[in-house]
Amino acid sequence: xxxxxxxxxxxxxxxxxxxxxxxxxxxxxxxxxxxxxxxxxxxxxxxxxxxxxxxxxxxxxxxxxxxxxxxxxxxxxxxxxxxxxxxxxxxxxxxxxxxxxxxxxxxxxxxxxxxxxxxxxxxxxxxxxxxxxxxxxxxxxxxxxxxxxxxxxxxxxxxxxxxxxxxxxxxxxxxxxxxxxxxxxxxxxxxxxxxxxxxxxxxxxxxxxxxxxxxxxxxxxxxxxxxxxxxxxxxxxxxxxxxxxxxxxxxxxxxxxxxxxxxxxxxxxxxxxxxxxxxxxxxxxxxxxxxxxxxxxxxxxxxxxxxxxxxxxxxxxxxxxxxxxxx
Length: 327
Fold this sequence. Notes:
Number of domains: 2
Shape: globular
Helix content: 25-40%
Pathway: Carbohydrate metabolism; galactose metabolism
Family: Belongs to the NAD(P)-dependent epimerase/dehydratase family.
CATH architecture of the largest domain: 3-Layer(aba) Sandwich
Protein name: UDP-glucose 4-epimerase
Distance between the termini: 31 Å
CATH superfamily of the largest domain: NAD(P)-binding Rossmann-like Domain
Mean pLDDT: 95
Organism: Swingsia samuiensis
Strand content: 15-25%
Cofactor: NAD(+)
Radius of gyration: 19 Å
């Protein structure tokens, strides 16, 4: 099969590229490199340096089909930043996706997998874990932008027959177990790599944004899904959308608190993590844990790296080997 990956130079996208290559498929990557890294794209994989805001350039790449599917990862993804600059997030994420979907329809693409988010749910503590049937109530403009794109895909299916898989995943973490790819955000905002860097003395004290949440230890609880397991879910989702569209939540189904992440990093690295308490961040729910029953039942997907220490270990080994990331 031949697939186009937008955002394929980013964290999740680059791991999905590896999963598709490992499965014997051909891939082409489109990325504007605003947050991705050219070196994250494996040698020999065709690469287009294109911004999805440019409809003509986007359409020109999509026209180079036929494609057995398109996988869309390119997006702004910081909840806190979206609270500070909501219109930028809403405009950027919506218009880039709209240009891509319109190009797919124009050039006869039949299948698209969309990187959606658990931020659609806004953190209803009464739901633990959260099923796909939960009421969508985004707690941030970032989450709202993803839901807007899901609605675009709904109408693209209803009117044009473009089948889609909207994968609402929770906290992607870890790194390729073979060391081929890892997490390198500039600046880094994700808890596990920040905690590892604090343990290694590469950054000042880790700041936990609030420890007064209604949880077992006062810190936020999240469902961490290993990025390799997440990538495998994308491969399996492609096989489900030949004649229908689907929506899946993806996670391990078990939540870990921020303080438990610190303890895991200390176990894996053998070092103490210096940390301090900061104020809560706007848009942060106290609890987000996924119910992935539908995905498991319909595709046979099972996470292989569900243990938090194993997730942290792969992230640690990659960051230890690549202290400057991809640079």
